[in-house]
Structure formats: C-alpha cells, structure tokens
Request: fold
Amino acid sequence: MGVHLKVKELFTFLVDFDGGTFISQHQAGSLSAAILSWAETFDFSVFTDVSKKDWSNLIAQVHEPDKQPVAVNGLKNTWCASYLVGGHILIVHIVNTVEGT
Reply:
C-alpha cells in the first residue's frame, strides 16, 4: 500500500500593513495551510509598536472560522482577508500562483 502525498502549491501573499506592502510566497497543500505558514513566519520585527503577543493573536485569528480568506469576486484562485494586529488593520491578498520556468 503506497502513501499518496498531496502536491504542494505555491501561494503568493500581498500584505498591506502599517503603511507598507509586503510580498512573500509559501508552498502548502491547501489555502488554510498556506495562510498559517504565512502568519507563523511573517517578519514582524520591523514594527516597533506591535508586540509578540499581538502577532500571536494574529495566528489565533487565522484559525477562526469567520476570519478565513474569502474568494475575490470575478477572479480565479484569489482570496482576501483582514485581521486586527495591535490596533492596526492588516489586509492580505492571496493568489494561488503557477510556478513558471
């Protein structure tokens, strides 16, 4: 009996937060796994007014059913979500990206 591994897909994250735009990519087997990976690895060290507790709260929000990304109307493989981090709104757009050569 063989083990079937789900192919990981590439997701591109475009984040608007605290006056800046931050772009990263994560490989994951699903959108929910990708957003968790993004939240756990986002480099918050440049934001002096946001605490580690605030970022831990972001990870908790990512798990909440009503905080899941929603599909962007009229686009394929594109989602949007917003979160409150340390009193600031963080908006993230996620695109399931096709890897090129």
